[in-house]
Amino acid sequence: MNLKPSTALRNEYPQISKMARASGQPIIITNKGEADGVFMSIEAFEEREKMLEHRASVLEAEFARLAGAETYSTEEIRRRLKEKYDHA
């Protein structure tokens, strides 16, 4: 992970933006030596958001399963999908 002072973000934005896109990693922006914010490419941000949404849906499904929601075996899912495709 890269650290850059806030003045670098202001004065060297094109280079920092290029670095963020090339590395795919967030860059921590510091102010007076203390971590203050994070800069990342839009691609890295969107990928992170997708991953977090996926994790949330998996967690929601697991909570539902633990609460007694109906579950299906792999064989049952395949059978149901085959029925749907056969009738399509």
Description:
The protein has helices at residues 6-11, 13-23, 42-66, 74-87; strands at 2-5, 27-31, 34-39. By secondary structure, the chain is of the alpha+beta class. A three-stranded mixed β-sheet has the order 1-2-3. A hairpin with a 2-residue loop joins strand 2 and strand 3 (34-39). The termini are far apart. The model has no long low-confidence stretch (mean pLDDT 94).
Q: Summed up, what is this model?
A:
The protein has helices spanning 6-11, 13-23, 42-66, 74-87, and strands at residues 2-5, 27-31, 34-39.
List the helices and strands and how they pair.
Blueprint: E1 2-5, H1 6-11, H2 13-23, E2 27-31, E3 34-39, H3 42-66, H4 74-87
Parallel strand pairs: 1-2
Antiparallel strand pairs: 2-3
Series of H and E elements = EHHEEHH
How does the overall form come out from the CA principal axes?
elongated
Give Rg in angstroms.
22 Å
Helix content: 55-70%
- Distance from N terminus to C terminus (CA atoms, Å) equals 51 Å
> What is the average of the pLDDT values?
94
Number of beta-strand segments: 3
Strand order of the largest sheet: 1-2-3
Poorly predicted spans: none
Look at the helices and sheets and give the structural class: alpha+beta
Number of helical stretches of at least 4 residues: 4
